[in-house]
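Hypothesis: this fold can be encoded by more than one sequence.
Test: take the structure tokens below, design a sequence, compare later.
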């Protein structure tokens, strides 16, 4: 967190003499509608455990998998200034990061013996709503965010071993709790530069994958969460 604020505030401090020459008020107003875009990186972390496959057991190890990918954010919001100091707002946003985590686990069965099963967890499109709380200091406004995010996950399983024929996938929408911290700098009365981090936690869920021949259910418990860092611009109407 300390590194985040240093990398965010230091460039703005160095640019301050140049930007202050712009024809804009000393303390830009943070009120009204706004829209913006952000680019960054998102890390998907997933805990995963195979629960059952018609009596077949796994190694019972809950794996923690990581995957980082570029991310894109688009958002639209409205905010209001209270006593010309405090800023509160509400924001709807879209988030995209094409991420996937992969793992190979060993399954065992009295009839089949030991065999490997590959699992993949993918996340792509997400939609959310946040409430923000900020404190204006001249051109710089640090803020906190709280809200939720609905994300699309796909869990798939397959076995490379001949004769096992475990093959299937399931798409699931899950709602998670989001929290974040960031700061923005008023380049002009309408244009802001911002940087922020967010964490999104989802409740654990089970995915069912099916054997191609007999239709056996293959349960996988998934425990995902996102960590994101992004920077971008927003335009006030």
């Amino acid at each position: 967190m300390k590194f985040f604020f240093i990398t965010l505030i230091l460039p703005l401090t160095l640019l301050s003499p140049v930007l202050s020459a712009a024809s804009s008020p000393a303390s830009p107003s943070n009120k009204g509608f706004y829209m913006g875009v952000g680019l960054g990186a998102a890390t998907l972390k997933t805990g995963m455990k195979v629960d059952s496959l018609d009596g077949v057991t796994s190694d019972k190890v809950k794996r923690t998998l990581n995957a980082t990918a570029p991310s894109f954010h688009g958002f639209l919001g409205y905010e209001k200034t209270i006593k010309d100091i405090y800023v509160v707002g509400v924001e709807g946003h879209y988030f995209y990061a094409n991420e996937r985590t992969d793992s190979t686990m060993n399954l065992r069965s009295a009839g089949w013996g030991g065999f490997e099963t590959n699992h993949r967890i993918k996340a792509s499109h997400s939609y959310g709503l946040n409430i923000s709380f900020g404190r204006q200091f001249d051109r710089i406004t640090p803020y906190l965010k709280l809200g939720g995010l609905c994300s699309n996950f796909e869990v798939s399983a397959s076995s490379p071993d001949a004769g096992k024929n475990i093959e299937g996938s399931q798409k699931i929408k899950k709602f998670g709790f989001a929290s974040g911290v960031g700061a923005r700098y008023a380049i002009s009365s309408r244009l802001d530069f911002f940087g922020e981090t967010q964490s999104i936690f989802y409740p654990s869920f089970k995915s069912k994958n099916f054997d191609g021949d007999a239709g056996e259910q293959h349960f996988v418990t998934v425990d995902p969460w996102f960590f994101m860092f992004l920077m971008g611009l927003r335009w006030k109407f």
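The two ends are 31 Å apart (CA to CA). The helical segments are 2-19.
Hypothesis status: open.
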